[in-house]
Amino acid sequence: MADQPTALERFVQGILPENPVYRQLLGMCPTLAVTNGMKPAMTMACSVAFVLLCANIVTSLIRGLLKPHLRIVVFTLTIATFVTIADRVLAAYLYQMSKTLGPYIPLIIVNCLIICRCEVCASKQNVFTAASDAVGQSIGFGLALASIAMVRELLGTGGLFGIAILPTAWPDWVIMVLPPGAFITLGLLLGCVNWLEMRRS
Amino acid sequence: MSEKNEISGQGLGSDIAIHVAPSPHLSDQTFTTRRMMTDVLIGLLPLVVMSVYVFRMFAVTQLVICVLACMASEFVFVKMRSKPVTLNDFSAVVTGVILALSLPGTAPWYVGVLASVIAIGIGKVIFGGLGMNIFNPAMVGRAFVMIAFASAMGASAYINADGGVDAMSMATPLTAFKQSGVATSILDLFVGVTNGSLGETSAFACLLGGGYLLYRRTASWEIPAGILSTVIVLSAWADMSGGFGGGFVLHQLFGGALLFGTFFIATDPVSSPVTPKGKWIFGIGAGALIMVIRLFSGYPEGVMFAVLLMNAMTPLINRWTIPKPTGVA
């Protein structure tokens, strides 16, 4: 298909121009729920990257076999397979983190970001393009989670990755690591991104 | 503020300008935002005097911090939106004073500053400035710092035995009542020589200032009437069923931030309903929430959360209570 973006375009678009969080507003549930610290946010970003890459590759490999009316079921089952793998691996090797993230790892199954990439890219393009699309989108997702988690953890606990950065006199803004902080931070950062976009054009 | 209406037909030689505008055709040109805000400041005066009398330097410091921080944030945020600076309508000053009066005197300086920035920035300007905000700005700021700095804003933060202020050596009336069942004398609550947030202690000052606002019609009477009657009914009910042995109604009425919130926070014309019926619903809802939070939750006081929750209901209440045009079935 001539009108489909190339592998490089797919890769670049995922990072900023079509950033999953800031431009497509997909995957809001983990974005809000696990960004209270850099550690859980990065674990989530890596899990999503793993699932997205594997799901995109498998979907692209079987794209000739997909029936239009069954494709969503096939996507979901493919994704669920890899989410289960990710969930079990985390539980085996990072037990505490697995406890912290709780239901949000299994919930990657219903993360619209992954189904969207399977539908938009992997089910129509070759394996290489699908893989570079997955990597680009994963980087974009990881950067978005990192930006939110950085603001929240720094203001909320005075540190990053659990290491104190700000002076001990810093009064922790407890609200920032609670759900209201997630909504306020996401809203303000979204506003900033839109403002920058407006200034650029 | 809006330009003065052009007067039609200013002279024989001039072009006749006819002013065409949709109703309401306001005849009182003096009823401006600035006048309303000045009224509120005058109404707040007894509370400010009382807080300075009871809490001394604690009150002065908190007031100065909050007012300055609110004005600075208003200036900065409005500049960021490249809108004309609206400092001279006094709304930022009012937010600052109300915010300061709702904080404990012991709160460190950054609490007041952060609350002011959040109140003006996130509570007001982000929504489009004065008149567009859905929540009361001062209460947005206070709720933020209350959750952010629970230790600096919680019940124990009000007690400061070394500050040289007598009132601050005891627990706040509602906390004492909730935790140990100790009732404060009604006279103390009425005069205001008790511990509490800076502006809330004196029922007398609140009634005086609130009465002035009602007299000037800057605040509508329906909301205070709704809140106070609901609180009286519910606390009388709790008194009869809980065996508090009388005095409970007045204790609930004069204690805590009820009167302060009723007259100065719930009546905010921007974030409360516009129709009289809607104002009654707003008042009754707020009064009921206050009593539910006071009686059944972990917090000793619920005025802030009650007002914020009812602010969120305001668009719905407005939709419910659209008056029917005359002649339409």
TrEMBL record, chain A:
Topology in membrane: Multi-pass membrane protein
Keyword Membrane belongs to the record: yes
Pfam annotation, one family: Rnf-Nqr
Domain of life: Bacteria
Main localization (coarse): membrane
Ranges annotated as spanning the membrane: 41-62, 74-95, 101-120, 141-167, 173-196
GO cellular component: endomembrane system; plasma membrane
Location in or out of the cell: Endomembrane system
Entry keyword Translocase: yes
PANTHER family in UniProt: ELECTRON TRANSPORT COMPLEX PROTEIN RNFE, ION-TRANSLOCATING OXIDOREDUCTASE COMPLEX SUBUNIT E
Protein name: Electron transport complex protein RnfE
Native source species: Desulfocicer vacuolatum DSM 3385
TrEMBL record, chain B:
FMN phosphoryl threonine sites (modified residues): 172
EC number: 7.-.-.-
Keywords, sorted A to Z: Cell membrane, Electron transport, Flavoprotein, FMN, Membrane, Phosphoprotein, Translocase, Transmembrane, Transmembrane helix, Transport
Domain of life of the organism encoding this protein: Bacteria
Membrane topology annotation: Multi-pass membrane protein
Signal peptide: none
Cofactor entry: FMN
Enzyme class: translocase
Family membership noted in the UniProt record: Belongs to the NqrB/RnfD family.
PANTHER family in alphabetical order: ELECTRON TRANSPORT COMPLEX PROTEIN RNFD (PTHR30578), ION-TRANSLOCATING OXIDOREDUCTASE COMPLEX SUBUNIT D (PTHR30578:SF0)
Subunit and interaction comment: The complex is composed of six subunits: RnfA, RnfB, RnfC, RnfD, RnfE and RnfG.
Protein name: Ion-translocating oxidoreductase complex subunit D
